């Protein structure tokens, strides 16, 4: 009589490593690492888990990322543990690619308690942000933030902002543009607020939330190094702070980008610190892709005497691409074809005369 085991290979012992590579899509290196945390006895449960992920629209790459990060999910009961959480995420607005991306980036969410963690966090933030869509948008940008402890981290950190008199609608805006605050310890949040205040920006200033976002990701030593770059070009600390109060992103860029920008504006355009302070957004765009082509267009137009003598070059160089193209390229390209060549980088920039009046 033939053995019945030949018709049920899924119950036979098999190498975990092979399963992770062949069925979960892991690289050999990742599979070796994952297999040290996982010892499968059969394919029944892991195959059901993989089937559930595919049923909810997860692709091979998503599944591979999830199992690489938390291989023990393969041993979870797919219907009692995983499915209720996936259904919850779907019900609040995560669907299709948004759901698979959320879990692929932060599969630990599937280890969190639905009743004790996920639902309370989501409910609390929906009250703050006023809609499911807004909460989904926040966690789509920062999936790991949903892992934060509501009672020990999220609520106390937001309470710190209230104690510093940040209005509720501004707290909501801060969470929206800087969701990382949900992962910051209350003590650290208080430190950041004090650091922002020390630059001359108060919680009542509209720019506060952006300054908070910049400083939340900067160590003091990094701030000092960037300050030193500005000072090496003749800026005073007060001038750096003036620029920061207008555009906090001027301290979020790398030291190299700051240096390259200042070298171009001071050496090529002969600008002064007060020119950049007036328009600190000049430091934001790519020199190669945006600023130099625009300067070249303006140089071509200047030689053709198409520009006035007292233009606000800082304002012009920071115009949205659509407006710059309309006002300075498409307006003149028929009579002066070189503006198109300049804009596309085919003409080398050879200087621009700035009349200070």
Automatic annotation (TrEMBL):
Keywords, sorted A to Z: Transcription, Transcription regulation, Transcription termination, Transit peptide
The keyword rRNA processing belongs to this UniProt entry's keyword annotation: no
InterPro entries: MTERF, MTERF_sf
A single GO BP: DNA-templated transcription termination
Pfam families referenced in this protein's UniProt entry, alphabetically: mTERF
A GO molecular-function annotation: nucleic acid binding
The UniProt record lists the keyword Lipid biosynthesis: no
PANTHER family, A to Z: CGI-12 PROTEIN-RELATED, OS02G0749800 PROTEIN
Family note: Belongs to the mTERF family.
Protein name as it appears in the record: Transcription termination factor MTERF2, chloroplastic-like
Organism: Ananas comosus
